[in-house]
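Students often ask why we bother encoding 3D structure as a string. The short answer is that it lets us treat folding as translation between two languages. Here is a chain of 349 residues written in the first language.
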Amino acid sequence: MKKKLRKLAALGLSFIMICSLLAACGSTKAPEENSAQGNGDENSGNMEEEVSGESATKGESAGDDALTVGVVIWSTDDGLGADSKKALDAVAGELGINLIYRTGSYDAENQTTDIENLIAAGVDGIMCVVIVDTATDELLKVCEEADVDYQVFFRNIMDEEAYNYCMASDHFAGYICEDEAAAGVDMVDELITQGCTTFGLINREAGNGVIDRRQQGTMEYLQEKGLTYYVSTNTSTATATEMVDATDQLLAAYPDIDGLILSSGSNGAIDAIITDLEGTDIKLTSFDTPADIEGAFQAGNLCMLATGAQIDPVYALINLYCKMSGNPKSETPTEYGSNYIYMKSAEDA
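And here it is in the second language, the structure alphabet:
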């Protein structure tokens, strides 16, 4: 019962937030009651077509002249990616706009191709989870040439030159991200509370602004506390199987490790590592959510998840929608920062 009440409260808060955001950008359309009521279909009102690496969703009230947004994201199949798509589809249905998704690109060249293809398909705006921070402005330039607005989500812009260029552009709507470094600190503290003394960091290669800040904040805090830690660095495209292998190799090399921090568990890596750790006493914290959060906690190793970022795509889409509609929320690109919500048990799921 408590879990149902929490979910109802979250839905109510989301309804209020969306109404407020839409009002701020001059929209006259408020979210309606769930269009699935009475037929049990969660996606009622949205038509979706899947092709290789791409899917398209048509808003329930979208007309022939409806705005279309291209969404460039790593995946819509893992925990966070699937949650993001579900949230975006719901808001697009209320706004009466169309979405086209492009997934599976992990470098600047392929993301550039994704954006070029979306522009060729006739989109009015682009939302992008930028994989290579220093390419943020180059992706924007592709949009500028086509007179298309550009919004970044799940990311800020660390590169100074890229940041300055984007913030001066008339086509840049803004960005939204969490306080990654602070979350890394909180994960270390939680593992200490769990009794951990030696830490293993399952990291990714440098170049992704968000993950870089997570890893940097975590390592700086471990050094400040004088705690022992060891690092496994993996490519940004490492599969779930490869991430499990890297974890096993780290634990074999340093058997004293009793606490792990996973800086990026996307594409099923978090799910696979949770399964791999079952039967051990090693505690795990992660920045990405597994598909079955409740089951992951019940398995016994997971002790903390940084979550709540699922709202970022909603902020981003509405902010971009306002700009495309001629009612930007600010005269300059918006810079949204938000805090993670921490889950520490199955009851929090």
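Translate back mentally: The CA atoms of residues 217 and 340 lie 15 Å apart. Keep this in mind for the problem set.
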